[in-house]
Design goal:
Among the domains are: 125 residues, no CATH class; 62 residues, no CATH class. It is built from 10 helices and 4 strands; from the N terminus they run H-E-E-E-H-H-H-E-H-H-H-H-H-H. Strand 1 and strand 2 form a beta hairpin. The chain is elongated and about 85 Å long. The relative contact order is 0.11.
Length: 287
């Protein structure tokens, strides 16, 4: 957890600050020191959560963002999803230290429906556990694809509704964050589901390729042409071919083995009935 961000939230709570605390690519909105909303590029936005759950329509959300929340603030389920969105975004923002900047501003429009003290927010983030826990740390939620295991050993695995939904959406291309956005679910909930599916042997562990520092620096540097060397892409003079001396040994020749033809019988022998019976019994047992 980022100690700098946690300390800044507690400081703004004491000063009853109102505005936006920017942390990297995300932001936390405060009103009188209380957290009312949070944005994180790795998590599903509140608009997607509300629309997928049927709490609001696209037009109602657009009017609310424009300053006309109307009856959206009066809906009781709005507070629940607002809390989920704040906890989800804050968990990932606190896991990634970044430069902080607080900009005072007007109260966020969600202040009438959601207010969380920084102490309660930090307690919830700590309760969710270590963000770097294997096999899926939070740094991989938008980098590594979720690859399902097609062949599973014969054993009975009981899945929850959320696990089954995430497993069905895993296509070896989308990341955890992408699956969460497409399903309209929180990224933390999908992260937990993927971790549990990986332990159960239904999802492959993520493959992380880490280059050594010198090699990473060399790959990141731009290639500069050498003016003293000719460009290999441009035509140049033909290189002379050295004459072959008589003492030079002839090139080795590769011996190619001739393929032999295999006679195929015109008629196959009838299968053994006992083998077919045992095969059918084995298939029925596996079914």
């Amino acid at each position: 957890m980022s100690d700098e961000l946690a300390f800044e939230l507690q400081r703004l709570e004491q000063q009853r600050g109102t505005g936006t605390l920017h942390s990297g690519a995300g932001a936390i909105h405060l009103v009188d020191g209380a957290v009312t909303a949070a944005d994180c590029p790795h998590t599903t936005g509140l608009d997607r959560l509300l629309i997928e759950a049927g709490v609001a329509t696209v037009e109602e959300w657009r009017r609310a963002r424009a300053g006309e929340p109307g009856g959206l603030l009066a809906r009781s389920r709005l507070e629940t999803f607002a809390l989920l969105a704040v906890f989800d975004a804050a968990y990932f923002l606190l896991a990634a230290p970044a430069p902080l900047e607080f900009r005072p501003g007007p109260p966020h429009w969600l202040a009438a429906a959601c207010r969380i003290t920084p102490g309660a927010l930090l307690h919830e983030c700590r309760r969710r556990g270590n963000p770097d826990a294997p096999p899926w740390p939070v740094t991989l939620v938008d980098q590594a694809p979720v690859v399902p295991i097609r062949r599973v050993r014969r054993r009975r695995v009981v899945l929850t509704g959320g696990q089954a939904e995430v497993l069905a959406a895993a296509d070896a291309r989308r990341s955890i964050a992408a699956i969460a956005r497409d399903l309209g679910r929180t990224t933390y909930g999908c992260l937990l589901a993927v971790r549990e599916l990986t332990v159960a042997g239904l999802v492959e562990p993520p493959v992380v390729v880490v280059l050594p520092d010198p090699l990473r620096d060399r790959l990141s540097e731009p290639v500069r042409p050498d003016p003293t060397r000719p460009d290999p892409m441009l035509p140049g003079p033909a290189l002379p071919i050295p004459p072959r001396s008589e003492s030079q040994a002839p090139p080795l020749r590769r011996r190619v083995r001739q393929a032999t033809s295999v006679a195929v019988p015109d008629r196959w022998e009838p299968p053994d009935r006992d083998v077919l019976v045992r095969l059918r019994a084995a298939l029925e047992e596996l079914a």
